[in-house]
Amino acid sequence: MDVKSYINAARLRTLPLSISGIIVGSFLGNHALNSQIETGNQSILSSSVFWLAIVTTIGFQVLSNFANDYGDGIKGSDKNRTGEARMVASGAITPKQMKNAMIITTIITLIVALMLIYVAFGKENFGFSILFFLLGIASIAAAIKYTVGKSAYGYSGFGDLFVFLFFGLLSVVGSYFLYTKQLNFLIFLPAITVGFLSTAVLNLNNLRDFDQDQINQKNTLVVKLGITKAKKYHYFLIFGALFASSIFVILNFSSIVQFLFLIAFVPLIKNLVTVAKNKELSELDSELKKVALSTFLFAIIFGIVNTL
Questions:
Q1: Per-residue tens of pLDDT for the chain, all 308 residues
Q2: Where are the domains of the chain?
Q3: What are phi and psi for residue 78, nearest 5 degrees?
Q4: CA 275 to chain centre
Q5: Helix or strand holding residue 52 (H, E)
């Protein structure tokens, strides 16, 4: 077994983006929990809920990447692609081997998810435990069905919606709920921010792959919209993220320090300029990393400055 090929298939560069929502939701949820108790404050880094949520999310992301590699590989969508080589398409991993890797990853992720649910809710919140178990199953299904099967939603333009829902709303609001056992509707604002930024990464990916996706009849939202409208959509996602996070800070304002999260938007604004001027779509590959890491930076800064 070539471990390096599986590591490549796991696409480690996508992991910081995948845990960004968990970081934001956990910081805010842990802060809300600490404000409710009278004795002592638990550090986020000493929270077993935080680390189990991180590992669970990484498991979902790796499963999604394996499934994406497998689905696109057997459909021929990764032939002559721009960017990182795909393991099934290149022959480094056979379809059967990738299927087995998906099964193993699913089992491990489910076990960790069950541990997370038990630690967060115990025996006294059985209803919440069932709800989050079902959400975990839905996350696994969404990860696999992105490119696998005849009804793969990544081939019909719904990838953006699922990324927004799972990487944004579920990730932030769900992790917040693990701590507080209740909803605060203001938490949807940073959830929308992370969702928009995560979707922007997917949009850049689909812009880069526009020509190849057209050939392979992979009808992403970019293929449906066309390049010009897809770029405008990208501007909306970045500015929408900036607006939602700014409104959250204004509504929860206690110190000017809270606006330090704007540092993370400096490279994102530069990204908008690059996208606007871009004429060779393959050159957008480097922008994926810029937006993904900016989202990760946003999550850390936003989480810290809003819990001081």
A1: 578 888 988 888 889 999 999 999 999 999 999 887 765 678 888 899 999 999 999 999 999 999 988 888 887 765 555 556 678 888 888 989 999 999 999 999 999 999 999 999 998 889 999 999 999 999 999 988 888 877 788 888 889 999 999 999 999 999 999 999 999 999 999 999 999 999 999 999 999 999 888 888 888 999 999 999 999 999 999 999 999 999 999 999 999 999 999 999 999 999 999 999 999 998 999 999 999 999 999 999 999 999 98
A2: 3-305
A3: -95, 5
A4: 21
A5: helix 48-75
